[in-house]
Design a protein that fits this description.
The protein is mostly helical. The chain has a single domain (about 5-405), classed as Sodium/glucose cotransporter. The chain is built from 20 helices and no strands. Helix 2 runs parallel beside helix 14 and helix 13 runs antiparallel to helix 14. The chain starts with 5 loop residues before the first helix and ends with a helix.
Length: about 500
């Protein structure tokens, strides 16, 4: 990721006192929320990891919204629309629509099992159903790959953003360290409850700024029709399938949706843990409907308009990840533009604290406790979480400084890894024929092929305009899962009743 645009730096410096006041105000609210959550934190794992399963539906919705949107939704996705056109937004909305349905269906089932058997992580559920510590290790690997990629991108972006908001007083490297320290102290002191409460505030700020931004774009352009006028000869290709690059066919759109939306919104370890944390199984209908509404507003009024009008105003930019920041100072008053940057910072913090918390929880519970220290007490689990998160933060900062990245490709790749867990999850909560062998082999093949094709170790046998490599890998995973399940032995009847029977009785 390159340095922040010089034009934005100059505008911030010329209005530094006003921007500094807004930044101080944000962190004052941050500290108040963290303190309030700390007062309620119990020193036991269920409270630290899943907030004692007592979060209201609105808090759960906004912690999912803020965590998923992150720097990806505020910077990376508008930049991708700038590059590849409106069909990319169609991919997002298609994926989010399916994700909302899956959340409505899977959420109550995951919640029921978590409540009954005290599950706190994905590995608890999958390892428990298939009676296999090896499957637990899969969830740890998926968590490491998913969360580390997000943490690295967010720390790097947050460091650059603090550099700008501080008027160049804080270097990008120091900014990354500061973000990491703030997040570590917040998570250690307040657990998931503090993360969720902060996400509620951050989510409202993010949503408000995206709505204001979209309105300001419409005003600056002189109406919806005029947003497209600056696109000139490429206007028709920009807003229609298959897009300027000729790639976004119908199947490719749904292929992107598999990684970007389904993998991130439903199957990521962070979202899974939030499903455990809800107060009631009845909340998931509200959560799903509300998330669909929030994403629709954020991506249509925010992401789509920013990327499209940004392409009209700026024919070329040094890095597309910064188009939303550049355009903000073109269409909004300086204070609102700066407040938008603070909303981006809020999104980055919401993502970083979520994924650091999730990564340590899954490593401690599904690897250390399951395989190395089975008699670990609840209080010891909390202490180990707190110790490991410091290590995670240090590694994240180091990788962030060594590996500049574009945000959106990283987000798609991360979701492509976690979507491979959908097949064993479906078996654990819905399909009683699923076997342990299928749950071990099919996701492993899917993850392996995703790496091979996306990192180009092997050529993708399917043309990219038909399906991205990770989507092809996912469908192979699905096929293998069903085939292997039919030729191997399913779980014993008592195990099926323990999971599927419980779900049938409770729902």
């Amino acid at each position: 990721m390159s340095a922040f645009p010089a034009e934005v730096r100059e505008l911030v410096l010329s209005n530094y006192p006003l921007i500094l006041a807004a930044l101080v105000g944000y962190f004052a609210v941050f500290l108040l929320i963290s303190y309030a959550a700390k007062r309620q934190l119990a020193q036991e794992a269920t409270d630290y990891i899943v907030a004692s399963r007592d979060l209201g539906w609105l808090v759960v919705t906004f912690t999912m919204f803020a965590s998923v949107l992150s720097g990806v939704g505020m910077a990376g996705l508008p930049g991708t629309v700038y590059s590849v056109g409106t069909p990319f937004v169609v991919s997002i909305l298609a994926g989010n629509s399916i994700a909302a349905v899956l959340m409505w269906y899977l959420g109550p089932r995951i919640w029921v099992l978590g409540k009954e058997y005290h599950f706190n992580t994905p590995g608890d559920l999958l390892g428990g159903y298939y009676q296999s510590d090896s499957i637990r290790i899969y969830t740890v690997i998926a968590s490491l790959l998913y969360n580390v990629t997000y943490i690295v991108a967010q720390l790097l972006a947050g460091g650059i953003l603090l550099n700008v908001l501080s008027g160049n007083l804080i270097s990008p490297a120091l900014g990354s360290v500061i973000i990491a320290v703030i997040v570590v102290l917040h998570v250690i002191s307040s657990g998931l409850r503090g993360i969720a409460w902060l996400d509620l505030f951050n989510g409202l700020l993010i949503l408000a700024m995206l709505v204001v931004y979209g309105i300001m774009i419409l005003v600056a352009a002189g109406g919806p029709a005029n947003v497209l006028e600056g696109l000139g000869a490429m206007k028709e290709r920009f807003i229609t399938i298959p897009g300027p690059g000729g790639v976004f066919t119908a199947s490719h759109i749904y292929g992107i949706a598999i990684g970007l939306s389904l993998g991130s919104v439903v199957l990521s370890p962070a979202m899974w843990i939030r499903m455990y944390s809800a107060r009631s199984k009845a909340h998931f209908a509200k959560i799903s409907a509300m998330m669909l509404l929030l994403w629709g507003v954020a991506f249509v009024l925010g992401t789509n308009l920013i990327g499209t009008y940004g392409r009209s105003v700026f024919s070329q930019v040094e890095s597309t990840d910064f188009i939303s920041s550049l355009l903000a100072f073109q269409v909004m008053p300086i204070f609102l533009a700066a407040l938008f940057l603070i909303a981006v910072l809020a999104a980055i913090i919401s993502t970083t604290d979520t994924y650091m918390h999730t990564l340590t929880a899954t490593v401690v519970r599904d690897f250390v406790r399951a395989t190395l220290w089975p008699k670990m007490s609840s209080s010891q689990e909390v202490k180990l979480n707190r110790a490991i998160i410091v290590l995670v933060a240090g590694i994240g900062v180091l990788l962030a400084l060594l590996n500049p990245v574009l945000i959106t490709p990283l987000a798609i790749f991360a979701g492509a890894i976690t979507i491979q867990l959908l097949t064993p999850l479906v078996g654990a909560v819905t399909w009683s024929r699923a076997s342990t062998e299928a749950a071990l082999i099919a996701p492993a093949v899917g993850i392996g092929l995703t790496f091979a094709w996306e990192l180009r170790f092997l050529p993708n046998p399917v043309p990219v305009h038909i399906l991205p490599g990770f989507a092809t890998a996912f469908f192979i995973n699905v096929l293998l899962f069903f085939l292997i399940s039919y030729i191997t032995r399913p779980q014993p009847p008592e195990q099926v009743d323990k999971f599927h029977g419980l779900i049938a009785r409770k729902l």
